[in-house]
């Protein structure tokens, strides 16, 4: 294509083309390109032309790609943001669920803790009650009967088949409730359990409480059994003491002349709402008071042995053949075999009214026990008391001998009521019944 051709084309455009279109037409003249616009022409070389065209194409492609990217990017971001929002909502919901679960667990733990503390407090209160009961049993029921042992005498003993045999009689009543070692151990271990169980599960807590409750149940059963034994013991003893006194025709009120006194303070019985322990303690105390009163009464009744060991009676009470005259005679007492120097003991508390030589009795001691009761101890080799002296049960009042109207060493023992002799074996057999208490 020549330069003249292009000039003619510019001056005489082809049909259908405007001058503006022609001015924008690029002309290639000898390998160059001319850009015409508004009467201006710019000649561009092939390299520059294609650079311009390539740049324009690249810019177009870049613009399209960029527009497409941003269009899709906004959609992706929108969906990503939506997804993140959904995840956040789901996360918040999960957190709310976890918080609700934590609240439920916490509430359950608090409830379990309250229940455990309630059960533990109940056990501790029960333990304290049992400890008070144990203290009551150990303190209130250390009881010594009103018949004390002699200072220099062995306990008096009788057997049911008098006058040949004798068996022990317990003159002193001593009862002490032993401390329950298991209860003491539980008392010391409860706080340790309370600290340890915090790390255990519900089963562990229930197991610990169940074991402690079982131990306390055991202690309570033992205390209940002990109370029942005490009630039976004192009740039975009071009945048998009253029976002995009734058989002997002795009024307990008249016999119990111990020097006691004080203001009258009535005892208030436990109410209907009192515990079984308190009611049983009240009954036991009443029986024990009866036993104490009856013991004071029996303290001045000659039902103990006048000599130690087994009784060997050589001559009974009543009519017998006199050993010196060989004729029937009234024997006002019983003769008990013994060796010279063996102690003769007071069979009841009393006051010495005679202490010296008295005819056929030889050396004799007479004791006044009150209420018309008195005892005599004859043929003594030695007298160890004085007139007016008060002696206790089992106290030595002299030594066995063979003074007076006697054929050999023995003790002549009498029991008198209002000065009249009665069979001593009646009182000695009563002592046998008391010996089984």
Topology (elements, then pairings):
Layout: H1 3-11, H2 19-23, E1 26-29, E2 32-37, E3 40-44, H3 46-140, H4 181-196, H5 202-248, H6 252-255, H7 276-298, E4 313-315, E5 318-321, E6 328-331, E7 334-337, E8 343-345, E9 350-357, E10 363-370, E11 373-383, E12 390-391, E13 396-400, E14 410-417, E15 420-422, H8 424-435
Helix pairs in contact: 3-4, 3-5, 4-5, 5-7, 5-8
Write a structural description.
This protein is an alpha+beta fold. It folds into 3 domains: 3-44, no CATH class; 117-258 and 270-298, no CATH class; 313-435, Glucose Permease (Domain IIA), CATH 2.70.70. Helix content is 48%, strand content 18%. The strands form 3 sheets. Strands 4, 7, 8, 9, 10, 11, 12, 13, 14 and 15 form a 10-stranded antiparallel β-sheet that branches. A 3-stranded antiparallel β-sheet has the order 1-2-3. It is rod-shaped and about 195 Å long. The relative contact order is 0.09.
Task: Supply database-style keywords.
3 domains; rod-shaped; Glucose Permease (Domain IIA); 10-stranded antiparallel β-sheet; 15 strands
Uncertain stretches: 1-12, 21-29, 142-202
CA-atom Rg in angstroms: 61 Å
Number of strands: 15
Q: Which range best describes the helical content: under 10%, 10-25%, 25-40%, 40-55%, 55-70% or over 70%?
A: 40-55%
Q: What's the story with the biggest beta sheet?
A: 10 strands, antiparallel
- Overall tally of structural domains: 3
Instruction: Specify the structural class.
Output: alpha+beta
Order of helices and strands: HHEEEHHHHHEEEEEEEEEEEEH
| Strand composition percent | 15-25%
The global form is rod-shaped
Mean pLDDT reading:
75
- End-to-end gap: 158 Å
Number of H/I helices: 8
């Amino acid at each position: 294509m020549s330069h003249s051709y292009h000039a003619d084309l510019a001056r005489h455009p082809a049909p259908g083309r405007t001058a503006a279109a022609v001015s924008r037409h690029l002309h290639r003249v000898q390998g160059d390109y001319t850009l015409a616009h508004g009467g201006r022409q710019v000649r561009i070389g092939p390299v520059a032309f294609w650079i311009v065209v390539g740049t324009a194409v690249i810019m177009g492609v870049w613009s399209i790609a960029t527009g497409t990217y941003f269009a899709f990017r906004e959609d992706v971001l929108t969906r990503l943001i939506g997804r993140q929002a959904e995840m956040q909502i789901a996360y918040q919901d999960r957190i709310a669920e976890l918080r609700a679960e934590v609240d439920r667990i916490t509430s359950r733990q608090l409830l379990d803790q309250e229940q455990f503390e309630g059960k533990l407090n109940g056990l501790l209160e029960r333990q304290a009650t049992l400890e008070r009961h144990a203290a009551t049993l150990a303190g209130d029921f250390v009881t010594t009967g009103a018949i004390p042992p002699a200072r220099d005498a062995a306990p008096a003993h009788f057997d049911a088949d008098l006058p040949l045999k004798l068996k022990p009689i317990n003159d002193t009543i001593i009862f002490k409730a032993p401390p329950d070692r298991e209860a003491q151990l539980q008392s010391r271990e409860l706080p340790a359990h309370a600290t340890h169980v915090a790390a255990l599960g519900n089963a562990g807590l229930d197991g610990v409480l169940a074991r402690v409750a079982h131990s306390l149940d055991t202690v309570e059963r033992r205390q209940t059994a002990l109370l029942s034994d005490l009630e039976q013991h004192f009740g039975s003893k009071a009945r048998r003491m009253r029976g002995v006194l009734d058989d002997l025709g002795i009024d307990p009120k008249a016999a119990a002349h111990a020097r006691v006194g004080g203001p009258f303070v009535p005892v208030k019985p436990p109410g209907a709402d009192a515990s079984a322990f308190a009611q049983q303690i009240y009954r036991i105390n009443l029986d024990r008071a009866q036993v104490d009163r009856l013991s004071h009464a029996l303290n001045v009744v000659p039902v103990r042995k006048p000599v130690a060991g087994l009784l060997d009676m050589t001559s009974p009470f009543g009519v017998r053949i006199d050993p010196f005259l060989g004729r029937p005679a009234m024997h006002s007492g019983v003769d008990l075999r013994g060796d010279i120097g063996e102690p003769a003991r007071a069979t009841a508390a009393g006051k010495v009214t005679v202490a010296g030589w008295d005819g056929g009795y030889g050396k004799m001691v007479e004791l006044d026990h009150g209420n018309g009761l008195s005892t005599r101890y004859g043929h003594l080799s030695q007298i160890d008391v004085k007139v007016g002296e008060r002696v206790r049960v089992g106290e030595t009042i002299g030594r066995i001998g063979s003074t007076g109207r006697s054929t050999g060493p023995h003790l002549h023992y009498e029991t008198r009521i209002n000065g009249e002799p009665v069979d001593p074996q009646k009182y000695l057999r009563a002592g046998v019944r008391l010996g089984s208490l």
